[in-house]
Write a structure and sequence with these properties.
This protein has 342 residues and is α/β, with parallel strands linked by helices. It has two domains: 170 residues, Aldehyde Dehydrogenase, Chain A, domain 1; 139 residues, Aldehyde Dehydrogenase, Chain A, domain 2 (3-Layer(aba) Sandwich), CATH 3.40.309. It is 39% helix and 16% strand. The strands form two sheets. Strands 8-9-10-7-6-11-12 form a seven-stranded mixed sheet, sandwiched between helices. It has a five-stranded parallel sheet with strand order 3-2-1-4-5, with helices on both faces. A hairpin with a 4-residue loop joins strand 8 and strand 9. Helix 1 crosses helix 6 and helix 8 crosses helix 9.
């Protein structure tokens, strides 16, 4: 294995970030291929994911600030880390690979069938910058000869991951969603920003707000009006099919609902809502709500709110889909995990 010193690895990542913020006709072609393979991956959403990664994860100043919190040294015996990537939103597994590369280990990547093209292209770009990158990453249909695993999937697939990979050092992630905690004082601008957290990537990401908590007697009209600013989402065929299906189910089963033409709000104690839906639940006081949410923290990826939600990463409205380098999925520090492998 040809080693790349840490400073050079970070410089390569920064160079990739600069490239992604510029024009790349071939990347555009890759995005078109991804869209035709998976219609949830619209060009706009792929561009949004790439831009967010470039700005938040591939900026040298941010990389230096992030990695300086750790005593990262090149491992004396680099390990092979199997990465089982999800495919719910574009490049959702990029951060796991970045952490593995930054820590100086090799990544053996099993791509999601839904997201097959973007990640290999980014690695191809890095390999063009420095051919030694090829020793740090490989793609496979089935993990083998690995030392540790980071696997992301549904609650159902996580049981299989545990059975297959439980004997190795591992991070196994289940399904989580973001929540919104409203107090009724939100401005129209903040409620519109909440729409970014709800609608981006069609609500398919673990950081998408799938449920809101509102005070008893809450007036939903301002919220529905603000969320209507995202009405163009209903023009997407797959999203509209889900909206129409759930709307029909609610009507047939006489389920009370609120709607504004692009999303369906229903009262439900569950966290994870259906596509084109947003669950809500009322609360009487913030103290009892915080106790309830602390008891359900394993279901919650993050929260958006005016006030911090105890034991849950909390963001301002519109910020849930812009994770920084230190915003680790499920609150598990990936770099710390990787450092312990050496």
């Amino acid at each position: 294995m040809q080693r790349i010193p840490l400073d050079e690895r970070l410089a390569l990542l920064d160079r990739l970030g600069d490239h992604l913020l510029g024009e790349d006709d071939f990347l555009r072609a890759i995005m078109n291929r991804s869209y035709h393979h998976n219609h949830w991956f619209t060009i706009a959403n792929q561009e949004r994911a790439v831009r967010s990664i470039a700005e938040e994860m591939l900026d040298r100043h941010k990389l230096d600030g992030w990695i300086s919190a750790y005593d990262v040294e090149d491992p004396t015996d680099p390990k092979t880390v199997g990465l089982v990537l999800a495919g719910n939103i574009p490049l959702v597994g990029f951060h796991d690979w970045l952490c593995t590369f930054a820590a100086g280990h090799r990544a053996q990547i099993k791509l999601s069938e839904k997201d097959q093209f973007l990640m290999p292209y980014l690695i191809k770009l890095l390999t063009k910058y420095d051919e030694r990158v090829a020793d740090y990453v490989s793609f496979t249909e089935k993990l083998k000869d690995f030392d540790a695993v980071i696997a992301t999937g549904s609650n159902n697939s996580s049981r299989y991951f545990q059975a297959y990979f439980g004997k190795y050092p591992h991070i196994i992630r289940k399904n989580r969603n973001a929540i919104g905690v409203l107090d009724g004082t939100e401005t129209a601008k903040e409620l519109e920003a909440l729409g970014e957290d709800v609608f981006r990537y069609f609500g398919l990401g673990c950081r998408n707000v799938a449920k809101i908590y509102v005070p008893e007697g809450y007036d939903f009209d301002p919220l529905l009006e603000s969320l209507h600013e995202f009405r163009d989402v209903i023009l997407h065929t797959k999203y509209k099919n889900n909206f129409d299906y759930n709307y029909s189910i609610f009507v047939l089963n006489k389920v009370p609902y609120l709607a504004n033409g692009c999303i369906l709000l229903t009262e439900n104690t569950a966290i994870a809502s259906h596509i084109a839906g947003l669950y809500y639940e009322t609360y009487t006081d913030r103290e009892s709500l915080n106790r309830e949410l602390a008891g359900r923290k394993e279901e919650i990826q993050c929260a958006v709110s005016h006030h911090p939600v105890p034991e849950v990463p909390t963001f301002g409205f519109g910020q849930a889909q812009q994770p920084a380098l230190s915003d680790y999925a499920d609150g598990v520090d990936t770099i710390a995990f990787l450092q312990n492998l050496d």
